[in-house]
Amino acid sequence: MAGRWWAGRGTAGAEARARSRYERLGHQVDLLAAAETSGADRASAGAVQARRARERWNSTGAILATASSTEEFRLAERTAEEGLSLVVQARNAARSRR
User: Quick one: three-class SS letters along the chain?
Assistant: First the structure.
């Protein structure tokens, strides 16, 4: 019985971490979109990284929609982490253009 409790707790923890990263990424992607200007060069490095970050956000959401195991939640968390890294790259690229 104790083994099942811990197994469920591990999955719940993995789910919580993945959903937290997903929410953070969604917020950061929204901030990037709000910061873009209508005249921004869509081929710039920052714009490309921002689009890739949004793709990771969408992918993380799709993974979370069907995830039921610790491994699947960890995959979602890693995907969201990739997106957060892309957000940083997009911001750095935008700063270097100024």
Answer: CHHHHHHHHHHHHHHHHHHHHHHHHHHHHHHHHHHCCCCCCCCCHHHHHHHHHHHHHHHHHHHHHHCCCHHHHHHHHHHHHHHHHHHHHHHHHHHHHC
Q: Please, which residues have CB within 8 angstroms of residue 32's CB and are 6 or more apart in sequence?
A: 50, 53, 87, 90, 91
Summarised one tens digit per residue, pLDDT across range 5-28 is 444 568 999 999 999 999 999 999
Residues sharing a CB contact under 8 Å with residue 72, sequence separation 6 or more, in sequence order: 63, 66
Residues 45, 93: contact at Cβ < 8 Å? Answer: yes
d(Cα 45, Cα 11) in Å, to the nearest integer?
A: 37
Q: How far separated are the first and last CA of the chain, in Å rounded?
A: 60
The rounded percent of the chain whose pLDDT value lies above 90 is 67
